[in-house]
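Justification of computing resources. Each target in the renewal requires a structure prediction run like the one illustrated here; the chain below, 203 residues long, is used simply to show the kind of job we budget for.
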Amino acid sequence: MKSIIKSLLIIVAVTAVAGGATYAYFFDEETSTGNTFTAGTLDLKVDGKDGSAIGHISEDNVVPAVQWHGEEYDHQFVLKNAGTVPGHVTYTIKNVKNWENGCNDPEAKANDITCGTGSDQGELGTQSQLKMTFQLNTPPYGYSQDVFPVTEGVSYTPGAYHLNPGETKNVYIRSWLISGPNNNIVQGDKLEFDIEFRLDQDV
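Resulting structure tokens:
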């Protein structure tokens, strides 16, 4: 019996050595060290600034355009992508207020029925009489489908408004009051609004 057990132990030992020998191959190891990931940045500067301290549009004594290229009001913003990722710009009209500022005689005769002092009673924006167009890098002496009314929530993402990292482009805004049979209804009214400039990553 002892001889049988001894023989079994020898067989097990030999098998273990043989099994271990199966994995005795050559190898070489190399290590890649210092691997890092750094997130890119999107940083839109308008007129060289962040936040709401950028330039603004202010026009007084606005009158209707006699023709398509009549009385127009221009403004320029300078946009820069100060980040490291390319992106595209979207403009959104926000916080629209239409001040009535009371009614004079021509307004009353034009059937202006609000004639109050609230920020939602004027007609300069509510009847889409004031139009705007955004154009890139050249003064907007022509017009295209880029024209839109100054009303709450209007958002516009022109395909050409792409900004590479470090790139600067001039945006020209032209606005005008369209001429029509009922222009008198906006006499003395005041339109206030914000333009939100947004830079989104290109996908």
